[in-house]
Design brief:
alpha/beta, disordered C terminus, six-stranded parallel beta sheet, single chain, 11 strands
Length: about 325
């Protein structure tokens, strides 16, 4: 008999050909679930027995069911997918489907699914709003998912082109002294956006669309005076803009266009004393219709697990350094 609060769940899978991928090499996926939830998962043939606290066995069962359905749809299951299933199962108790069509992105090379509840909400916001701010630490997918959504919308014909922008703060006035043409000068600052593009489109397609202008690299300083219509426009590292630059960028929005503005307010590289355009925009645009603000935290980090612990450690140190502020009735975040 099970102890109080303990449960034993039996699962059976019909398609034996999928079990090797579901369980992982040497049952590494099952071991991963055991470690993260503190449950026992034992496989015998096409059956699994899950033992442990009731709430945790429910999470394990939901996650395994969702991963099995993922395999049936032809999608891969790896360690990252297992982690994502566990995050989503814990945040959505009682829900049978962890991944829905509205929370997936289709690109030429891969199908991308949300790996956390905040990522799922972010994907929905990118599809439903003309302007979305994605805020949070490195590794939360805020830029990657924005680029993926842009590629998806371009492939479906919803928009005609993608415009990528990023402030080259480190170069400053020295940009003109760097060797090469304009794109070669700013490429180092836009490399993360290039990496995301190559992860979603074949290399020859990326080069072809860059040459045709369907994908455009537009340094922030050279966007003044333009109106961007029928485009998905992404401003990365927006914490390194000034209020003047941010206003200039936001007012480039044209007909049938979308904008994603991503940044990390804990990593501002502006000169000392300079005002942050991203923070200023969030304060100014609070409550404006058509704008969505998505905030990520260390629990959304989908890189190496150590990255999440590093982010948490830095956040804890900074919170100890900041002096306590007197509470005000109107001191609210966007």
């Amino acid at each position: 008999m099970s102890a109080a609060g303990e449960d034993r769940v039996q699962m059976q899978f019909d398609d034996n050909s999928l079990l090797a991928q579901l369980f992982g090499e040497r049952d590494e996926n099952l071991d991963r679930i055991e470690r993260q939830l503190g449950v026992s998962v034992v496989s015998r043939g096409n059956r699994i027995a899950i033992s442990g606290p009731t709430q945790r066995t429910d999470v394990a069962r939901t996650a395994l069911s969702a991963l099995y359905e993922r395999l049936k749809r032809g999608l891969e299951v790896d360690g990252a997918a297992v982690d994502a299933a566990l995050r989503l199962a814990q945040s959505r108790p009682g829900r049978r489907e962890l991944w829905t069509e509205s929370e997936e992105i289709h690109t030429r090379k891969r199908r991308i699914s949300a790996r956390s509840p905040n990522q799922a909400a972010y994907i929905r916001a990118l599809r439903e709003h003309e302007l979305v701010f994605g805020l949070g630490p490195a590794g939360t997918g805020k830029t990657y998912l924005a680029v993926a959504t842009a590629v998806d919308m371009m492939m479906s014909g919803a928009i005609e082109r993608i415009v990528l922008s990023r402030p080259a703060v480190e170069a400053g006035e020295r940009l003109g002294f760097l060797p090469g043409d304009l794109r070669e000068k700013v490429d180092p600052y836009l490399r993360p956006l290039y990496d995301a593009l190559y992860d979603m489109l074949p290399g020859d397609q990326v080069m072809k669309r860059l040459a045709s202008g369907e994908i455009e690299i537009a340094p922030l300083a050279f966007m003044r005076g333009r109106t961007l219509a029928n485009a998905f426009v992404i401003l990365d590292e927006a914490q390194n803009t000034t209020p003047v630059q941010m206003k200039m960028f936001l007012t480039r929005l044209g007909e049938n266009a979308r904008m994603a503005v991503t940044g990390d307010l804990s990593q501002i590289d502006l000169p000392r004393g300079a005002q942050c355009g991203l923070r200023d925009a969030l304060d100014t645009l609070r409550g404006v219709d058509g704008i969505s603000v998505m905030e990520f935290n260390e629990t959304d980090v989908v890189r190496h697990p150590l990255v999440s612990r590093i982010v948490r450690a830095y956040d804890q140190r900074e919170s100890k350094r900041e002096p306590a502020r007197p509470k005000k009735s109107d001191d609210r975040r966007a």
